[in-house]
Specification:
The structure holds two protein chains of two kinds. Chain A is α/β, with parallel strands linked by helices. Among the domains of chain A are: 77 residues, N-terminal domain of TfIIb (Single Sheet); 282 residues, Dimethylsulfoxide Reductase, domain 2 (3-Layer(aba) Sandwich); 151 residues, Beta Barrel (Barwin-like endoglucanases). Chain A is 23% helix and 15% strand. Chain A is globular and about 85 Å long. The N terminus of chain A is likely disordered. Helix content of chain B is 15%, strand content 19%. Chain B has a single domain, classed as Alpha-Beta Plaits (2-Layer Sandwich), CATH 3.30.70. Chain B is an alpha+beta fold. The mean pLDDT of chain B is 95. The longest helix of chain B has 11 residues. Classes of the chains: A alpha/beta, B alpha+beta. At the A-B interface, strand 3, helix 5, helix 6, helix 11 and strand 35 of A face helix 1, strand 2, strand 3, strand 5 and helix 4 of B.
């Protein structure tokens, strides 16, 4: 055929439709435009009119076609066959009526008797506002999404310090930045906006430094790559802080006005108030905000004055005595003392980065921040009523995610990072870090869990949120013996600030009956029998383990998913979910919206195709179950069903009757004339549809920066019900919240006290100023035997385990290698491509080695979740993913070895419960020549379950013809 | 004379493969028919792609560069794939320099793929014809598309806008300016194929710090110095001097 414009006439005889919706090939949530030909997906492109991705799309997004038509799709509700074991994947098809009936009977009994026996845990769902509401209404505390094993340290470490965090909640302002430092970032998160910004930043002449043990992805285009030993980021950051303070390269004015740096702290060790701020009377009613009644030591009058006293200029350094003899120091003095020992030479030993490089890095940051200042001609008024003619920016920006977060020392590392960003004066300023609505929030945010078992009652919604932000020990969710109320032990003394729960310990805890047994575990879109669990092989056994009466230790498991994952094999009841192209969905302000720096943005999905087979959106399952169980939010007063379906729920649900706050912020009010707050609008979906499925609000320029302290913004946020109070949110250089837990551990804080065996752990880790400690797993490992760190990285063309069923994406990554520095091969006698064993103190895997010069030599790494169990995701039993691919998870335990803090303590950050994925230590050695040339461990091939598709031996996808061919 | 081509900026390419699958999804349902996949769900999956990204490491630790290198047909001025074709199926268009295959004439002899020094051609085992990048010739002249979208699918998709598209014979075009000003180069020019696609090299931004930049009169540490003043209640000359 000759190419000519006329050849396009091909399409004239076909039915072409073009529809907008939102991508879901990863968590990025780009706007997409989908072209259908004769009802089949012909082209998925980035929507050029969408604020997030502005027309671009990634490898995953452009492969959505292969997700839609994947033979791994579940299409029918399934019930485990009588007599078949879990894991055998033997199912019979049942009707939705029967599936709902089974769930209704079981769950209504649990709700009437003991609601905590029902546990709902969800994966990468993007609908936590709805799943969380369902759990709360049901009355179970046992709810969380995957944040605990993802990046909760990033959320908590920064939110407890600056009232906001990276990714959905804020990020680097690369439009204005001059120096960008990226530390350990997963390349599949917020990926398109980051790629777009990076490219623009580099082309504008910005300098990009990447600190990472591995040079892949984004790091590849860095102007400088600084390899670092895993888990030592905290040491580097603390050393940078030390050097910046020693050189006077900090933004003093910013710290004085906008942080607690100058506030005086009681340093009398004998006092019960030791380490707390000295406070005066406050004329404000207490609420979820800082009453600003602390003291400064004024340089001019040389005496203590109330913070933010006009004309006063406080000391940041020094020590003073109050009139009553109390010795006090400003918080910044304590920070200076805390980092005194973290010299560049000390950090060089820990991190593997030369001391001169650390010093230079600090100087680059400090001098760029100081000498490249931005002045925007934008006037604004601060929270104390002072008017400013300009907005100042110090153009040094940072980004980090799991590389710093997924360590058991990650919370303090990220606190240190937030403090580094703060002393450079870069918070919510041009060229630095900027918030995204609904952030900033008070430190800590106001949502709280119940404080004890009395919050869990039959036939009653939970007496608080299932997840929250403790402000002091009394906010913990523990019983009178200080024992956890939640199955995952979140918000207990083991992990007090576990704001996202600990999904990675749910199966082990429920199996062991510690703290108690449950009845029904509902898992939505999480592959807990594979890559989302540590200690995968044992967790699979636990899922299938029975007690002495032959009953499963976890009696009933419901799995809702769109694909035949490893986890579906362990379900008793399988609910087939739709793909993203087949459903309504919301990226809600109540959850993790897609806001931009200059104002709130939320968006929706609108189906472009009908559901395949009997697939039902999980949202509809929850609305149906909420109605059947008569959960108050889902029924009218008389108990009749309140919402027809999910779209009806989204339009009409309000957080409280008449609150005007619902899941969507755009086009509220009867005619769509309001936003953020307003009565339900029956045409809301249509208005989103007409507007590229996205609602964007641009704040006035004077509200776009300095939002922690911007009176205009704070009042706007209060008026629009983003926040309850319009009070300033000062940065916590010093964390009094942490100090209160430490005081409790020292027996000095009134109220809840930790159990004896955890006192030392709390006292050590709840340091009100960041400190460096070796990750817990490393501390408990024989490092002579297991000298290496082992990590995973995320390939940009795959989202977690999700894409091996995708015929195009699996051609990019069909199996994974262990990437090692050639010196390891030389030492242990193996070559590039050879089969090797990698062993930790918990287990071992056999895999293939790939030599790389782009990895710190003490580290080995592989791509995450490319390896699959044989037959899972409806691949052939001998697919590369199963025979040459492998999971690192087999080497990682979900619990630490028994040590002084106890047995069965999660392998997690002791503050937040963040899974310590990257803490494992390993050794490598050559596999024998007579061993099978395949990865180990192997598992019995999982059969295709009823309702999944036929695997073609070859295919040629042509939109409009593909399914017809299959028939 | 015009010569359409791609200019690929290795300075910003992060190797995400957006161009790889965007090309596939656009072209597999295009006028030239599907792009097949063998063993799509089995062992050693392999399929037709007009564009692939290769990743290389250059140098030794710690001075390692990781280079992501997207490669597709380079639409050579002297395309060696054209004269070797026995049926005239492989040809170069006069009007815009795009190298194409006329599938009605292609007999699948593979001479062209042997002649191509860049490995840019892909044989479709199921249609028994040779396929390759067309620069999305079915998009770039399509008047029914908005002008901003009359570009190859890979260019539209690229999140880092690393792929520039235009006429390299027009000295004022975006691609010509980029080649001229950013050090654009051709692959293996010694083969004399005069490839039209160009690559832009890595560029480094460095910051030089002068030692005296660490010394400043307004160093904030100076504000923290408390000037010690002698106590007023201790003896002084004021108390004893009398003349």
């Amino acid at each position: 055929m000759n190419y000519s414009p006329e050849s396009e006439q091909l399409d004239n005889s076909h039915r072409i439709e073009v529809k907008n919706t939102t991508c879901y090939m990863c968590a990025c949530r780009c706007g997409i435009r989908v072209t259908l030909r004769d009802g089949e997906v012909r082209y998925i492109q980035g929507n050029p009119d969408h604020p997030l991705n502005q027309g671009v799309i990634c490898a995953k997004g452009a492969s959505g076609i292969m997700k839609q038509y994947s033979p791994a799709r579940l299409t029918k509700p399934l019930l485990r066959k009588q007599g078949a074991d879990r894991g055998d994947a033997q199912f019979e098809e049942i009707s939705w009526d029967k599936a709902f009936g089974i769930m209704e009977e079981r769950l209504s009994h649990l709700r009437e008797t003991d609601p905590k026996k029902f546990a709902l845990f969800t994966g990468r769902d993007q609908m936590q506002a709805l799943t969380g509401l369902f759990a709360k209404q049901f009355g179970t505390p046992n709810y969380a999404a995957h944040g605990g094993f993802c990046s909760v340290n990033m959320a908590t470490g920064m939110i407890y310090t600056i009232g906001g965090s990276f990714w959905e909640f804020g990020g680097p302002d690369l439009d204005r930045s001059k120096l960008f430092v990226m530390i350990g970032t997963a390349e599949d998160h917020h990926s398109n906006p980051m790629k777009m910004a990076l490219s623009k930043f580099k082309r504008n002449g910005g300098r990009f430094i990447s600190i990472n043990p591995v040079r892949t992805g984004y790091s590849a285009i860095a102007d400088e790559w600084i390899p670092i030993k895993p888990g030592t980021d905290g040491a580097l950051i603390l050393s940078l802080i030390r050097e910046l303070i020693a050189q006077g390269l900090y933004d003093r004015d910013f710290l004085v006005q906008y942080s607690n740096s100058a506030q005086l702290i009681n340093t009398d060790e004998a006092s019960d108030e030791h380490g707390l701020f000295i406070r005066t009377e406050s004329d404000k009613e207490p609420g979820c905000f800082d009453p600003m009644n602390e003291l400064w030591w004024d340089r001019h009058t040389d005496k203590a004055v109330k913070t933010h006293t006009e004309e006063a200029d406080p000391f940041l350094l020094g020590e003073f005595k109050l009139e009553d003899g109390t010795p006090v120091k400003p918080a910044f003095q304590l920070l200076k003392e805390q980092v005194e020992g973290y010299t560049p030479e000390w950090a060089a030993d820990v991190t593997g980065i030369p001391a001169d490089t650390i010093r230079r890095l600090a100087h680059e940051m400090g001098i760029t921040a100081r000498d490249e200042k931005i002045e925007l001609p934008i006037s604004w008024t601060d929270a104390w009523g002072k008017e400013h003619d300009t907005i100042t920016g110090n153009p040094v920006a940072f980004h980090s995610m799991r590389g710093t977060a997924a360590h058991s020392n990650g919370f303090q590392t990220i606190r240190a990072l937030a403090i580094l960003m703060s002393i450079l004066g870069t918070i919510d300023r041009p060229g630095g870090f900027r918030h995204k609505a609904p952030f900033p929030r008070p430190i800590p945010p106001c949502a709280k869990t119940p404080k004890g078992p009395e919050g869990v009652k039959p036939n009653t919604p939970l007496g608080g949120m299932p997840l929250g932000w403790p402000a002091d020990p009394d906010d913990l969710f523990v019983d009178e013996n200080q024992q956890p109320v939640r199955i995952d032990k979140a918000f207990s003394w083991e992990f007090p600030l576990s704001a996202h729960g600990l999904m990675h310990n749910v199966i082990t805890n429920a199996w062991r009956g510690d703290p108690y047994s449950i009845d029904t575990l509902m898992i939505f879109m999480a592959n807990m029998a594979w890559n989302s669990s540590m200690n995968t092989t044992e967790v699979r056994k636990m899922l299938n383990d029975k007690d002495e009466n032959g009953e499963y230790k976890i009696p009933f498991i419901i799995v809702a998913d769109a694909f035949q994952s490893e986890m579906t094999a362990y379900g008793d009841l399988i609910l087939p979910d739709t793909t993203y192209l087949e459903r309504h969905d919301v990226m809600s302000m109540l959850d993790r919206p897609i806001s931009e720096y200059d104002g709130p943005v939320d968006s929706v999905r609108i189906p472009v195709l009908p559901p395949k087979g009997e697939c039902k959106p999980f949202q509809e399952v929850l609305i149906e179950m909420g109605s059947r169980l008569k959960l108050p939010a889902f029924v009218k007063e008389g108990g009749e069903r309140k919402f027809r379906d999910y779209p009806d729920f989204i339009v009409n649900y309000e957080t409280e009757p008449g609150s005007g706050i619902g899941f969507l912020a755009g086009w509220r009010g009867k005619g769509g004339e309001k936003f953020m707050k307003g009565e339900p609008n029956p045409n809301q979906w249509k208005m989103y549809e007409k507007n590229n499925c996205v609602y964007q609000y641009h704040l006035p320029k004077s509200y776009q920066y300095m939002r922690n302290w911007n009176m205009g913004y704070l009042r706007w946020a209060q008026d629009h019900r983003l926040t309850r109070y319009a009070e300033p949110i000062n940065i916590h250089i010093y964390s009094e919240v942490l100090q209160k837990f430490r005081l409790a551990a020292q027996g000095k804080y009134p109220g809840k006290q930790p159990p004896q065996h955890l006192r030392k752990r709390i006292e050590e880790h709840f340091n009100p100023l960041p400190f460096y400690s070796e990750p817990l797993e490393s501390q408990l490992t024989d490092k002579h035997k297991y000298p290496l760190n082992a990590l995973t990285q995320r390939p940009m063309a795959m989202y977690h385990s999700w894409d091996s069923q995708n015929a195009w994406l699996r051609q990019i990554h069909a199996h994974n290698y262990m990437h090692v520095h050639p010196s390891l091969g030389a030492k242990h006698g193996f070559g590039d491509g050879d089969w090797i064993w990698v062993e930790s103190m918990h287990g071992k895997v056999r895999c293939m080695a790939r030599f790389s010069e782009a990895v710190e030599p003490g580290t080995i790494w592989t791509w995450n979740a490319v390896g699959k169990a044989s037959g899972a995701w409806n691949l052939d039993g001998d697919a590369n993913e199963a025979r040459k691919g492998f999971l690192l998870n087999h080497l990682i335990a979900e619990e630490l070895p028994a040590h002084e803090s106890g047995e069965h303590i999660s392998n997690s950050d002791p503050i937040t419960g963040q899974a310590g994925w990257y803490d494992v230590r390993v050794r490598v050695y050559r596999a024998n020549d007579d061993e099978p040339k395949e990865t180990w461990p192997q598992f019995d091939t999982m059969p295709a379950v009823p309702g999944t598709g036929k695997r073609r031996s070859w295919q040629g996808f042509f939109a409009g013809m593909f399914d017809k061919e299959a028939k | 004379m015009s010569q359409l081509a791609l200019v690929i900026d290795l300075n910003v390419c992060v190797g995400c493969s957006a161009c790889v699958t965007s090309c596939k999804e656009w072209n597999t349902s295009g006028p030239a028919g599907f792009m097949s996949d063998d063993n799509p769900y089995g062992k050693d999956p392999t399929g037709t792609f007009f564009n692939r990204v290769q990743t290389y490491e250059v140098g030794c630790f710690p001075n390692t560069e990781t280079i992501h290198f997207p490669k597709s047909c380079l639409h050579c001025e002297d395309a060696p794939c054209v004269p070797v074709c026995p049926t005239g199926a492989s040809y170069k268009r006069e009007e815009d320099g795009i190298v194409l295959v006329d599938y009605d004439k292609c007999i699948g002899c593979k001479y062209c793929s042997w002649a191509c020094p860049y490995g840019a051609r892909e044989f479709d085992e199921h249609q028994k014809v040779m396929k390759k990048c067309t620069l999305c010739v079915d998009r770039i002249y399509d008047q029914s598309l908005p002008e901003s979208e009359r570009k190859p699918a890979c260019v539209l998709s690229c999140p880092t806008s690393a792929r520039l598209f235009g006429d390299v014979e027009d000295p004022e075009s975006e691609v010509s300016v980029a080649i001229r000003e950013e050090g654009g180069y051709q692959l293996m020019p010694e083969w004399g194929t005069k490839p039209s696609n160009h690559y832009l090299p890595r560029r480094k931004t460095r910051l030089h710090i002068h030692e005296d930049e660490l010394v400043r009169a307004d160093n904030p540490l100076k504000k923290e110095e408390r000037q010690p003043s002698a106590p007023v209640d201790e003896p002084t000359l004021d108390d004893s001097t009398s003349w």
